[in-house]
Amino acid sequence: MIAAIPATGCTDTPVLKERGQREVFCGLTGIIWLHRKMQDAFFLVVGSRTCAHLLQSAAGVMIFAEPRFGTAILEEKDLAGLVDAQTELDREVDRLLTRRPDIRQLFLVGSCPSEVIKLDLHRAAERMTAKHAPHVRVLNYSGSGIETTFTQGEDACLASMVPVLHATSARELLLVGALPDVVEDQALALLRALGIQSVRCLPARRDADLPSVGPNPVFALTQPFLGDTHAALIRRGAQHIAAPFPFGAEGTTLWLRAIATEFGVSEAVFDAVTAAPRARAIRAIAAATRTLQGKSVFFFPDSQLEIPLARFLTRECGMTALEVGTPFLHRDLMAPDLALLAAGPVISEGQDVDLQLARVRAARPDLTVCGLGLANPLEAEGLATKWAIELVFTPVHFYEQAGDLAALFAKPLRRRALLQNLAPMEAAE
Ligand code: SF4
Fold first, then answer.
1. For residues 267 and 286, what is the distance between their CA atoms, to the nearest angstrom?
2. What is the C-alpha separation between 203 and 200, in angstroms, rounded?
3. Which of 63, 115, 143, 411 is the most exposed place for a label (fewest CB within 10 A)?
4. CA dihedral 307, 310, 314, 316 (to 10 degrees)
5. Tens of pLDDT along 27-72?
6. CA distance readout (Å), 171 to 86, 135, 196
7. What string of DSSP letters covers 335-348?
8. Of 13, 17, 1, which is closest to residue 339 (Cα–Cα)?
9. How far away, in angstroms, is 111 Cα from ligand 1 center?
10. What is the C-alpha to C-alpha distance for residues 82 and 373, in angstroms, rounded to an integer?
């Protein structure tokens, strides 16, 4: 069942734009999931010891494996311009590629320090590609905290790949956005069952499987934070299939339906393929809805998943959204979700953290979705919180994960209810 489109959605809701201090991770964070996805790629951060520590602590699980990321550390003499950082970088890359013949794609990832000293990584990537092609392709993008929030690292990475994709005139579907392999396989199985056979993914698991692009391929985004990649694909002539993002039973159904319509799949086939997994998803969501129903939620801007998730929580889990903050509002990408989100919440773009903290304290929502840095102080003030970053690290897309997605939001509310029940017992002892 798909709920009706609200009479007044948030399409025309005035957006509260804030341009103050932000409290988010930088774009290097994306390497943590991208290096798992792209099995013959290597991410070389050109940065400081701080960047190296961020990656090592966040992705510490990789310590026993052959790593697929590293940091070329800019020392003080590099930052002071006392040595030629480009020459040192060339030496570092030569050493890496000699030691690791398995690497087929190398990303030079810019950071705050490399941006500050204006190290030209694009020129470096062109020079290294000329030297190491065709075995290795070298690309560059920025993960600097000056320029990016944490999901923009993936966007910048994928956008850097689009100009070098081969050209094709074949009619293909591109799925764009890094998903865990098991989730991607579920999507591919659903699309195959609908009769859509020619489907490629960006990013691909291996360089050899990268899609081609041109005027006939169409693409569907699986992640809402891919504004630059969307623009780069449009520049290459590909057509975007606009749809709500595939979160929850309804979101997944509408996302699949938009693709099915594009490929002329009949209603009967669509219903036959989606009925069973959709019913499973609705049942799984219902288990968490018992906790979420009637509760209010407030989103700080963090992952750019906020608008589709607010649509999911309000339409499928019975919650009320008080404020939906997003770091950037890409209207082209968000229009289908905004139309479905019933008017009422404040829609805010960007951040002025002190002003937003004042709003959340005044609103006192049942659940606040925010970054790690804000969660502990807000918990101490008696607000239940959900870490936004968990929503990016956990498989949450499509039918089979819909129950887990709802459960992620229900968990902090259940924990808080348990603690509140325990408090009087402890007082009585
Ligand atoms: S890129 Fe900038 S914000 Fe990110 S870890 Fe490095 S110094 Fe910190």
1. 26
2. 9
3. 63
4. 90
5. 999 998 999 899 999 999 999 888 988 888 776 645 445 678 888 8
6. 42, 28, 11
7. HHHHHHSBS-SEEE
8. 13
9. 6
10. 36
Band (pLDDT 50/70/90 cuts) for residue 17 is: very high
Residue partners of 227: CB distance under 8 A and separation at least 6? 155, 328, 330, 332, 333
Helices (H), 293-387: 306-316, 331-340, 353-363, 372-380
How many residues are listed for the chain in this entry? 429
The answer to whether residues 225 and 305 touch, using CB atoms and an 8 Å cutoff, is yes
373-380 long-range Cβ contacts below 8 angstroms, 24+ apart: 373/23, 374/23, 374/300
Task: Map residue 106 onto helix, strand or coil.
Answer: strand
Which one-letter amino acid corresponds to residue 225? Answer: F
Residue with token string 């990321």: 69
CA of 418 to the centre of ligand 1 (A): 38
pTM greater than 0.70 (yes/no): yes
- pLDDT mean over 199-217: 93
Long-range CB pairs of 13-18, under 8 A, 24+ apart, other chains included: 13/338, 13/343, 13/345, 13/347, 14/347, 15/329, 15/347, 15/348, 15/349, 16/346, 16/347, 16/348, 16/349, 17/348, 17/349, 17/350, 18/348, 18/349, 18/350, 18/351, 18/352, 18/355, 18/356
354: nearest Cα among 24, 15, 26, 20:
20
Taking the C-alpha atoms of residue 311 and residue 245, their distance in angstroms, rounded to an integer, is 10
Closest CA to 150 of 26, 246, 297: 26
Which tens digits make up the pLDDT trace of 68-127? 888 888 777 666 665 678 888 999 999 999 999 999 999 999 999 898 888 899 999 999
Backbone angles phi, psi at 107, to 5 degrees: -105, 125
Judge contact between 104 and 52, C-beta under 8 A: no
- Residue among 24, 32, 44, 48 to mutate when testing ligand 1 (max atoms within 8 A of CB): 48
Q: CB-based contacts of 173: which residues, under 8 Å, 6+ apart?
A: 191, 196, 198, 199, 200, 217, 218, 219, 220, 259, 263
Regarding the beta carbon of 54 and ligand 1, being less than 6 Å apart is answered yes
3-state secondary structure of 410: helix
What rounded mean pLDDT belongs to the chain?
A: 91
Task: Note whether 220 and 201 are within 8 A (CB).
Answer: no
Answer yes or no: is the C-beta of 144 below 6 A from any ligand 1 atom. Answer: yes
10 Å CB burial of residue 362 (0-12, 13-18, 19+) is: exposed
